[in-house]
Amino acid sequence: MPVSVHSGRDLDVTSDAIDDVNVLKGKLWDDKSEFDENKDKTRFRDYDAACDRVKAFYKEQHEKQTVEFNIKARVDFKSKTRARMSVWEAMEKLNTLIDESDPDTSVSQIEHLLQTAEAIRRDGKPEWMQVAGLVHDLGKLLLLFGSEGQWDVVGDTFVVGCRFSDKIIYPDTFTANPDSHDSVYSTKYGIYQPHCGLDNVMLSWGHDEYLYNVFKDQSTLPAEALAMIRYHSFYPWHREGAYSHLANEKDEQILAAVQAFNPYDLYSKTDSPCDPVKLRPYYEGLISKFFPPVLDW
């Protein structure tokens, strides 16, 4: 039989048809992920076997993420605009960064963003969730906007202002953090009230919290997408069950969204390389549905 030769246009039509079928299937954002069913998940987040670079990163992060620093970081955020550009321009600007906290991948950031978004797309999840996957790490632009290092941009996040949870990666490295010895910050509730809600606590400052604050007033993303962005690195909470004494009923609802997003962020890192040039028209179309042409960063 003759071999069929498909043009790029044919492939685009096929891709569009798959998207249409997924819409007809009525896939919901909280349907179980399917793309990762055959992946060996024991290979991910193996911090015991992590290289020295990763361990040194977390030691520095845990020593320096204090209440004092977090207050200063939030004041600095509100005091200036760091850049004005589109979402896709931000993705391209980020592309030279390698995340020193990540033991699972060394690919460029645009590659990781597209892998995440494409995994969500293949599972037929809503467009807003695909966009959340595409943009979720853009807060790492802080590295280009005068951060003090990688320790105040990337890595797992945790609550500051109360006792550091033993569910955080490498918990012993908090001994050099002055808040560990503070008479208030070292207590179970610290400066917070029982079940005050995560909206009312300070998470360690980094790309999650920064990007959430950039997007919450400059996008039409739904609350579930904003939660995925804000808490996707908050592993002590959404994976290990820590901080239940601070969470409230609202947090129980958004937890489901963060957990639904997590497999796409984590397990897409071994997927085939993506072609940004080929995928750009599709994703710029989605971006335009949820963001203005230019944002304040």
Automatic annotation (TrEMBL):
Pathway: Polyol metabolism; myo-inositol degradation into D-glucuronate; D-glucuronate from myo-inositol: step 1/1. One of its GO terms (molecular function) is iron ion binding. It comes from the Eukaryota. GO terms for cellular component: cytoplasm. InterPro entries: Inositol_oxygenase. Pfam families: MIOX. Its cofactor is Fe cation. Substrate binds at residues 45, 99-101, 140, 155-156, 232-233. It catalyses: myo-inositol + O2 = D-glucuronate + H2O + H(+). It is found in: Cytoplasm. Its main location: cytoplasm. Signal peptide: none annotated. Keywords: Cytoplasm, Iron, Metal-binding, Oxidoreductase. Its EC number is 1.13.99.1. GO terms for biological process: inositol catabolic process. Binds 2 iron ions per subunit. Fe cation binds at residues 112, 136-137, 207, 232, 265. Belongs to the myo-inositol oxygenase family. This is Inositol oxygenase. It comes from Collybia nuda. The lineage of its organism: Eukaryota, Fungi, Dikarya, Basidiomycota, Agaricomycotina.
